Amino acid sequence: MKDKAERNRNVNEQFLQKIDFLQVLEPEEQKKLALSIKRGNYKKGDVIVKEGEYGDVLYYLENGICKTKKRVEVGKKEVPGKDIKKGDLIGVDCFLKGKLRDETVIAGSDDVRVVCLSLDEFVNMFGDVEDVMRRKDEVFDKYYPEIKTREEEERLERERIEREKKEKEEEEKRKKEEEERLEIERIEREKKEKEEEEKRKKEIEEKKKKR
């Protein structure tokens, strides 16, 4: 029993190695996560996930084939479903971004076997998924391009605001310095004019005295 449990754990760890975005986890974290992995078996026609449901489980198709199906809106042509083959993941966006299922996945053969990774257990172990994915830029950029774009836009906007603030401060500083310079010149000019006026008055007084 112990050997079987050990084999299952090794198989689960090997499975985790196949998922690129889980490489943000440390080896010990992957071993911990491997213990939470479950498996499920389905027969042809069984519904594995249903469109519109909360995507709280990531599936890896370990064996068999599956088909996808989308609800058809009134007046719109039905879109053919796509095949999901061995080695494909089901529900990546749901797992990483908390989205609802955008399609129903149905077992296409009697030998479907899936590996199941619970979102709730992942969050309980490591915290918010998005925060965990930020550990590696290449992973975050690949799976969260819209957030990366938004953050880049926000960064540029902050830089623009900061630049305009600095330019405004520098302009106000120049304006203040110019006002101070003009005020100094005015004071100096008035002082000089006053001195000249006093000088003229003094000269006039002296001329009167000489008379």
Q: Helices and strands in order, then pairings?
A:
Blueprint: H1 2-17, H2 27-34, E1 38-42, E2 47-49, E3 57-63, E4 66-69, E5 83-84, E6 89-90, H3 92-97, E7 104-107, E8 112-118, H4 119-126, H5 129-133, H6 137-143, H7 145-210
Antiparallel strand pairs: 1-8, 2-7, 3-6, 3-8, 4-5, 4-7
Helix pairs in contact: 1-2
User: What's the end-to-end separation, in Å?
Assistant: 135 Å
Count up the helices.
7
CATH top level of the domain at 2-134 is Mainly Beta
CATH-derived architecture of the domain at 2-134: Sandwich
Large-scale geometry? rod-shaped
The H-level CATH homologous superfamily of the domain at 2-134, spelled out, is Jelly Rolls
Average pLDDT figure: 88
Kindly name the structural category.
alpha+beta
Q: How many individual β-strands?
A: 8
Q: Using the coordinates shown, work out and report the CATH topology of the domain at 2-134.
A: Jelly Rolls
Radius of gyration from the alpha-carbon trace, in angstroms: 38 Å
Low-confidence stretches: none
* SS strand fraction: 15-25%
Index terms:
211 residues; alpha+beta; Jelly Rolls; four-stranded antiparallel sheet; 7 helices; 8 strands; 55% helix; 16% strand
